[in-house]
Protein backbone atom coordinates (compact mmCIF):
# COMPACT_ATOMS: atom_id res chain seq x y z
CA UNK A 1 0.00 0.00 0.00
CA UNK A 2 1.35 3.44 -0.88
CA UNK A 3 2.05 5.73 2.06
CA UNK A 4 -0.64 8.28 1.18
CA UNK A 5 -3.30 5.65 0.74
CA UNK A 6 -2.21 4.13 3.98
CA UNK A 7 -2.32 7.45 5.83
CA UNK A 8 -5.87 8.04 4.55
CA UNK A 9 -6.94 4.61 5.76
CA UNK A 10 -5.28 5.26 9.10
CA UNK A 11 -7.05 8.58 9.54
CA UNK A 12 -10.42 7.05 8.79
CA UNK A 13 -9.71 4.20 11.17
CA UNK A 14 -8.75 6.57 13.93
CA UNK A 15 -11.83 8.71 13.48
CA UNK A 16 -14.33 5.84 13.21
CA UNK A 17 -13.01 3.50 15.89
CA UNK A 18 -12.78 4.23 19.60
CA UNK A 19 -9.12 4.42 20.58
CA UNK A 20 -8.25 1.61 22.92
CA UNK A 21 -7.52 4.04 25.74
CA UNK A 22 -11.13 5.21 25.67
CA UNK A 23 -12.58 1.75 26.10
CA UNK A 24 -13.78 1.00 29.63
CA UNK A 25 -11.24 -1.18 31.36
CA UNK A 26 -10.78 -2.66 34.80
CA UNK A 27 -8.46 -0.36 36.64
CA UNK A 28 -4.76 -0.98 36.66
CA UNK A 29 -4.52 -4.73 36.21
CA UNK A 30 -1.28 -6.12 37.60
CA UNK A 31 0.72 -7.76 34.86
CA UNK A 32 3.80 -9.96 34.60
CA UNK A 33 5.05 -10.34 31.04
CA UNK A 34 6.76 -13.69 30.57
CA UNK A 35 8.57 -13.43 27.28
CA UNK A 36 11.16 -14.93 24.93
CA UNK A 37 12.27 -11.40 24.27
CA UNK A 38 13.79 -9.71 21.22
CA UNK A 39 14.38 -6.03 20.66
CA UNK A 40 11.79 -5.53 17.97
CA UNK A 41 10.30 -8.94 17.41
CA UNK A 42 6.66 -9.39 18.37
CA UNK A 43 7.65 -9.72 22.04
CA UNK A 44 9.61 -6.45 21.88
CA UNK A 45 6.66 -4.70 20.24
CA UNK A 46 4.22 -6.15 22.80
CA UNK A 47 6.47 -4.76 25.52
CA UNK A 48 6.38 -1.28 23.98
CA UNK A 49 2.56 -1.44 23.87
CA UNK A 50 2.52 -2.58 27.51
CA UNK A 51 4.94 0.17 28.52
CA UNK A 52 2.61 2.83 27.10
CA UNK A 53 -0.36 1.24 28.91
CA UNK A 54 1.64 1.20 32.16
CA UNK A 55 2.53 4.86 31.82
CA UNK A 56 -1.11 5.68 31.15
CA UNK A 57 -2.07 3.89 34.40
CA UNK A 58 -4.11 1.26 32.59
CA UNK A 59 -1.98 -1.64 33.80
CA UNK A 60 0.65 -2.01 36.47
CA UNK A 61 3.59 -3.82 34.96
CA UNK A 62 5.15 -5.71 37.86
CA UNK A 63 8.05 -7.21 35.95
CA UNK A 64 9.41 -8.69 32.76
CA UNK A 65 10.44 -12.34 33.11
CA UNK A 66 12.52 -14.01 30.42
CA UNK A 67 12.21 -17.57 29.19
CA UNK A 68 14.28 -19.32 26.55
CA UNK A 69 12.38 -19.72 23.30
CA UNK A 70 12.88 -17.35 20.37
CA UNK A 71 16.28 -16.35 21.65
CA UNK A 72 19.00 -17.64 23.99
CA UNK A 73 18.83 -16.19 27.51
CA UNK A 74 22.19 -14.40 27.17
CA UNK A 75 20.89 -12.38 24.22
CA UNK A 76 17.48 -11.74 25.74
CA UNK A 77 19.05 -10.32 28.88
CA UNK A 78 20.85 -7.49 27.09
CA UNK A 79 17.90 -6.77 24.80
CA UNK A 80 15.35 -6.69 27.63
CA UNK A 81 17.46 -4.51 29.90
CA UNK A 82 17.88 -2.00 27.11
CA UNK A 83 14.16 -2.21 26.30
CA UNK A 84 13.07 -1.10 29.78
CA UNK A 85 15.66 1.67 29.78
CA UNK A 86 14.66 2.80 26.30
CA UNK A 87 11.10 3.43 27.47
CA UNK A 88 12.27 4.99 30.75
CA UNK A 89 10.83 2.28 33.01
CA UNK A 90 14.05 0.83 34.42
CA UNK A 91 13.16 1.94 37.96
CA UNK A 92 9.66 0.53 37.77
CA UNK A 93 9.86 -2.66 35.75
CA UNK A 94 12.51 -5.14 36.94
CA UNK A 95 13.83 -7.78 34.52
CA UNK A 96 14.34 -11.38 35.68
CA UNK A 97 16.14 -14.19 33.87
CA UNK A 98 14.32 -17.52 33.89
CA UNK A 99 14.56 -20.98 32.39
CA UNK A 100 17.58 -21.66 30.20
CA UNK A 101 15.69 -24.28 28.25
CA UNK A 102 12.61 -26.52 28.14
CA UNK A 103 11.76 -29.14 30.76
CA UNK A 104 12.36 -32.10 28.46
CA UNK A 105 12.55 -31.03 24.83
CA UNK A 106 16.14 -30.55 23.78
CA UNK A 107 18.35 -29.66 20.88
CA UNK A 108 19.21 -33.37 20.55
CA UNK A 109 15.58 -34.50 20.27
CA UNK A 110 14.96 -31.60 17.90
CA UNK A 111 17.63 -33.04 15.59
CA UNK A 112 15.70 -36.33 15.66
CA UNK A 113 12.48 -34.53 14.79
CA UNK A 114 14.18 -32.91 11.84
CA UNK A 115 15.44 -36.26 10.62
CA UNK A 116 12.14 -38.07 11.16
CA UNK A 117 9.59 -35.45 10.23
CA UNK A 118 11.30 -33.02 7.94
CA UNK A 119 11.32 -29.41 8.96
CA UNK A 120 8.56 -26.93 9.68
CA UNK A 121 8.72 -23.24 8.86
CA UNK A 122 12.50 -23.03 9.21
CA UNK A 123 12.42 -21.00 12.41
CA UNK A 124 13.46 -22.90 15.52
CA UNK A 125 14.03 -19.99 17.88
CA UNK A 126 17.18 -20.17 19.97
CA UNK A 127 18.00 -23.51 18.35
CA UNK A 128 18.42 -21.78 14.98
CA UNK A 129 21.86 -20.61 16.06
CA UNK A 130 24.64 -21.40 18.52
CA UNK A 131 24.28 -20.36 22.14
CA UNK A 132 26.52 -17.37 22.96
CA UNK A 133 29.48 -18.67 24.93
CA UNK A 134 30.33 -15.31 26.45
CA UNK A 135 29.08 -11.73 26.56
CA UNK A 136 31.39 -11.01 23.63
CA UNK A 137 29.20 -13.20 21.41
CA UNK A 138 25.99 -11.36 22.29
CA UNK A 139 24.79 -8.86 19.68
CA UNK A 140 24.44 -5.42 21.30
CA UNK A 141 21.05 -3.70 20.98
CA UNK A 142 20.99 -1.39 17.92
CA UNK A 143 21.16 1.69 20.11
CA UNK A 144 23.78 0.33 22.50
CA UNK A 145 23.78 -1.61 25.77
CA UNK A 146 21.72 -0.57 28.80
CA UNK A 147 23.71 1.76 31.00
CA UNK A 148 21.74 2.01 34.21
CA UNK A 149 19.94 -1.30 34.46
CA UNK A 150 20.98 -4.68 35.83
CA UNK A 151 19.31 -8.04 35.66
CA UNK A 152 17.67 -8.87 39.01
CA UNK A 153 19.45 -11.34 41.25
CA UNK A 154 16.25 -13.21 41.96
CA UNK A 155 15.21 -15.83 39.42
CA UNK A 156 12.13 -15.26 37.24
CA UNK A 157 10.38 -18.25 38.80
CA UNK A 158 10.85 -16.99 42.36
CA UNK A 159 9.76 -13.51 41.36
CA UNK A 160 6.55 -14.92 39.85
CA UNK A 161 5.81 -16.91 43.00
CA UNK A 162 6.42 -13.93 45.30
CA UNK A 163 4.45 -11.50 43.14
CA UNK A 164 1.43 -13.82 42.97
CA UNK A 165 1.49 -14.49 46.72
CA UNK A 166 1.78 -10.77 47.43
CA UNK A 167 -1.14 -9.93 45.11
CA UNK A 168 -3.60 -12.80 45.42
CA UNK A 169 -6.12 -13.10 42.53
CA UNK A 170 -4.81 -9.87 41.01
CA UNK A 171 -1.93 -10.88 38.75
CA UNK A 172 -2.36 -11.61 35.07
CA UNK A 173 0.53 -13.50 33.50
CA UNK A 174 0.91 -12.58 29.86
CA UNK A 175 2.70 -15.64 28.50
CA UNK A 176 4.44 -14.71 25.25
CA UNK A 177 6.97 -17.53 25.14
CA UNK A 178 7.20 -21.21 26.12
CA UNK A 179 5.45 -22.06 29.41
CA UNK A 180 8.63 -23.27 31.17
CA UNK A 181 8.85 -20.55 33.85
CA UNK A 182 5.18 -20.84 34.72
CA UNK A 183 5.34 -24.65 34.97
CA UNK A 184 8.39 -24.41 37.22
CA UNK A 185 6.67 -21.83 39.44
CA UNK A 186 3.60 -24.04 39.77
CA UNK A 187 5.65 -27.11 40.62
CA UNK A 188 7.82 -25.20 43.09
CA UNK A 189 4.92 -23.43 44.79
CA UNK A 190 1.59 -25.15 44.08
CA UNK A 191 -0.13 -22.81 46.54
CA UNK A 192 0.04 -20.07 43.88
CA UNK A 193 -2.37 -21.88 41.54
CA UNK A 194 -5.59 -20.58 43.13
CA UNK A 195 -3.98 -17.16 43.61
CA UNK A 196 -3.20 -16.48 39.93
CA UNK A 197 -5.64 -13.96 38.44
CA UNK A 198 -5.46 -15.36 34.93
CA UNK A 199 -3.01 -16.38 32.23
CA UNK A 200 -3.31 -14.96 28.74
CA UNK A 201 -1.18 -16.84 26.22
CA UNK A 202 0.01 -16.29 22.74
CA UNK A 203 0.16 -20.01 22.14
CA UNK A 204 -1.36 -22.89 20.28
CA UNK A 205 -2.91 -23.83 16.97
CA UNK A 206 -6.30 -25.41 17.64
CA UNK A 207 -8.12 -25.66 14.31
CA UNK A 208 -5.28 -24.58 12.01
CA UNK A 209 -1.86 -26.02 11.16
CA UNK A 210 1.16 -25.16 13.29
CA UNK A 211 3.87 -22.75 12.27
CA UNK A 212 7.21 -24.16 13.42
CA UNK A 213 6.07 -27.74 12.90
CA UNK A 214 3.19 -28.99 10.76
CA UNK A 215 0.93 -29.40 13.79
CA UNK A 216 2.55 -27.28 16.48
CA UNK A 217 2.78 -23.60 17.23
CA UNK A 218 6.26 -22.48 18.29
CA UNK A 219 5.67 -21.59 21.97
CA UNK A 220 3.96 -24.90 22.69
CA UNK A 221 6.32 -26.93 20.52
CA UNK A 222 9.42 -25.54 22.23
CA UNK A 223 8.27 -26.84 25.62
CA UNK A 224 5.21 -29.08 25.25
CA UNK A 225 5.57 -30.71 28.66
CA UNK A 226 5.59 -27.33 30.43
CA UNK A 227 2.53 -26.24 28.48
CA UNK A 228 0.71 -29.44 29.41
CA UNK A 229 1.48 -28.92 33.11
CA UNK A 230 0.15 -25.38 33.12
CA UNK A 231 -2.91 -25.94 30.91
CA UNK A 232 -4.12 -28.71 33.23
CA UNK A 233 -4.22 -26.42 36.27
CA UNK A 234 -7.49 -24.83 37.42
CA UNK A 235 -6.59 -21.28 36.43
CA UNK A 236 -8.52 -18.85 34.26
CA UNK A 237 -6.73 -19.24 30.92
CA UNK A 238 -7.17 -17.45 27.63
CA UNK A 239 -5.45 -18.43 24.38
CA UNK A 240 -4.64 -16.04 21.57
CA UNK A 241 -3.53 -18.81 19.19
CA UNK A 242 -2.51 -19.01 15.54
CA UNK A 243 -6.22 -19.50 14.77
CA UNK A 244 -6.66 -15.77 15.28
CA UNK A 245 -3.13 -14.40 14.77
CA UNK A 246 -3.07 -15.92 11.25
CA UNK A 247 -5.56 -13.22 10.33
CA UNK A 248 -3.12 -10.51 11.40
CA UNK A 249 -0.50 -10.60 8.66
CA UNK A 250 0.32 -7.11 7.51
CA UNK A 251 2.09 -5.94 4.37
CA UNK A 252 5.63 -4.71 4.71
CA UNK A 253 4.65 -1.05 4.41
CA UNK A 254 2.35 -1.37 7.41
CA UNK A 255 5.07 0.09 9.59
CA UNK A 256 5.82 3.07 7.35
CA UNK A 257 3.71 5.67 9.21
CA UNK A 258 5.29 4.58 12.50
CA UNK A 259 8.81 4.75 11.12
CA UNK A 260 8.09 8.21 9.81
CA UNK A 261 6.57 9.44 13.06
CA UNK A 262 8.99 7.78 15.43
CA UNK A 263 12.73 7.91 14.67
CA UNK A 264 13.59 5.91 17.79
CA UNK A 265 11.40 3.00 16.72
CA UNK A 266 12.77 3.34 13.18
CA UNK A 267 16.26 2.98 14.56
CA UNK A 268 15.64 -0.28 16.39
CA UNK A 269 13.48 -1.61 13.58
CA UNK A 270 15.92 -0.91 10.80
CA UNK A 271 18.70 -2.88 12.46
CA UNK A 272 17.05 -6.26 12.03
CA UNK A 273 19.91 -8.49 10.86
CA UNK A 274 20.48 -9.13 7.14
CA UNK A 275 18.34 -6.28 5.98
CA UNK A 276 19.03 -2.65 6.78
CA UNK A 277 15.46 -1.48 6.33
CA UNK A 278 13.03 -4.33 6.36
CA UNK A 279 12.37 -7.50 8.27
CA UNK A 280 13.33 -10.60 6.31
CA UNK A 281 9.75 -11.63 5.56
CA UNK A 282 7.36 -10.80 2.76
CA UNK A 283 4.70 -9.97 5.35
CA UNK A 284 4.73 -9.10 9.01
CA UNK A 285 3.11 -11.69 11.25
CA UNK A 286 1.61 -10.33 14.45
CA UNK A 287 1.47 -12.75 17.37
CA UNK A 288 2.29 -11.37 20.81
CA UNK A 289 1.03 -7.91 19.88
CA UNK A 290 -2.49 -9.34 19.70
CA UNK A 291 -2.14 -10.98 23.09
CA UNK A 292 -1.22 -7.74 24.89
CA UNK A 293 -4.02 -5.95 23.02
CA UNK A 294 -6.45 -8.60 24.31
CA UNK A 295 -5.26 -8.03 27.89
CA UNK A 296 -5.82 -4.30 27.51
CA UNK A 297 -9.19 -4.66 25.83
CA UNK A 298 -10.85 -8.11 25.73
CA UNK A 299 -13.66 -6.64 23.60
CA UNK A 300 -11.20 -6.77 20.69
CA UNK A 301 -11.94 -10.51 20.59
CA UNK A 302 -15.07 -10.71 18.48
CA UNK A 303 -15.39 -14.49 18.63
CA UNK A 304 -14.24 -16.84 21.37
CA UNK A 305 -14.89 -20.47 22.22
CA UNK A 306 -14.61 -22.28 25.51
CA UNK A 307 -13.05 -25.73 25.27
CA UNK A 308 -11.19 -28.31 27.32
CA UNK A 309 -7.54 -28.00 26.37
CA UNK A 310 -4.49 -30.23 26.37
CA UNK A 311 -1.16 -30.77 24.59
CA UNK A 312 0.11 -33.79 22.67
CA UNK A 313 3.45 -34.77 24.18
CA UNK A 314 3.99 -38.01 22.27
CA UNK A 315 7.18 -37.77 20.30
CA UNK A 316 6.19 -37.66 16.64
CA UNK A 317 4.54 -35.44 14.08
CA UNK A 318 2.03 -34.10 16.61
CA UNK A 319 4.55 -33.27 19.34
CA UNK A 320 3.45 -29.93 20.77
CA UNK A 321 0.07 -29.88 19.11
CA UNK A 322 -2.66 -28.18 21.14
CA UNK A 323 -5.71 -30.38 21.50
CA UNK A 324 -9.17 -29.20 22.48
CA UNK A 325 -12.48 -30.85 23.27
CA UNK A 326 -15.85 -29.20 23.12
CA UNK A 327 -17.37 -31.49 25.75
CA UNK A 328 -16.23 -32.72 29.11
CA UNK A 329 -14.97 -36.30 29.38
CA UNK A 330 -17.84 -38.57 30.41
CA UNK A 331 -16.17 -39.61 33.67
CA UNK A 332 -15.23 -36.05 34.56
CA UNK A 333 -12.16 -34.29 33.33
CA UNK A 334 -8.60 -33.93 34.43
CA UNK A 335 -8.42 -31.14 31.85
CA UNK A 336 -9.44 -27.52 32.27
CA UNK A 337 -11.65 -25.28 30.25
CA UNK A 338 -10.04 -22.30 28.59
CA UNK A 339 -11.17 -19.47 26.39
CA UNK A 340 -9.82 -19.61 22.84
CA UNK A 341 -9.88 -16.41 20.82
CA UNK A 342 -10.95 -17.16 17.25
CA UNK A 343 -11.58 -13.72 15.73
CA UNK A 344 -10.33 -10.23 16.39
CA UNK A 345 -11.51 -6.74 15.50
CA UNK A 346 -8.47 -6.12 13.32
CA UNK A 347 -9.53 -2.66 12.20
CA UNK A 348 -9.68 -1.41 15.77
CA UNK A 349 -6.46 -3.26 16.61
CA UNK A 350 -4.64 -1.67 13.66
CA UNK A 351 -5.75 1.81 14.67
CA UNK A 352 -4.65 1.23 18.26
CA UNK A 353 -1.33 -0.32 17.21
CA UNK A 354 -0.39 2.42 14.76
CA UNK A 355 -1.42 5.20 17.11
CA UNK A 356 0.45 3.73 20.10
CA UNK A 357 3.62 2.74 18.27
CA UNK A 358 3.86 6.22 16.77
CA UNK A 359 4.16 7.78 20.23
CA UNK A 360 7.60 8.74 21.54
CA UNK A 361 9.05 5.90 23.57
CA UNK A 362 9.66 8.03 26.67
O1 LIG B 1 4.41 -18.80 17.27
C1 LIG B 1 4.61 -17.47 17.56
C2 LIG B 1 5.16 -17.28 18.95
O2 LIG B 1 6.45 -17.88 19.04
C3 LIG B 1 5.37 -15.84 19.32
O3 LIG B 1 5.21 -15.67 20.70
C4 LIG B 1 6.81 -15.63 18.91
O4 LIG B 1 7.37 -14.52 19.57
C5 LIG B 1 7.43 -16.92 19.36
O5 LIG B 1 7.69 -16.88 20.74
CA1 LIG C 1 7.13 -14.61 21.89
Automatic annotation (TrEMBL):
Keyword annotations: Glycosidase, Hydrolase, Signal
Signal sequence extent: 1-21
Among the entry's GO cellular component annotations, what is one?
A: cytosol
Q: Which organism is it from?
A: Sphingobium chlorophenolicum
Which terms does the UniProt entry file under GO BP?
purine nucleoside catabolic process
Which superkingdom heads the taxonomic lineage of this protein's source?
Bacteria
Task: Output one GO MF annotation.
Answer: purine nucleosidase activity
Q: Which SUPFAM superfamilies does its entry note?
A: Nucleoside hydrolase
| A Pfam family reported for this protein in Swiss-Prot or TrEMBL | IU_nuc_hydro
The identity of this protein, by name, is Inosine-uridine preferring nucleoside hydrolase
Gene3D superfamilies in the record, alphabetically?
Ribonucleoside hydrolase-like (3.90.245.10)
The residue ranges of the Inosine/uridine-preferring nucleoside hydrolase domain are 31-350
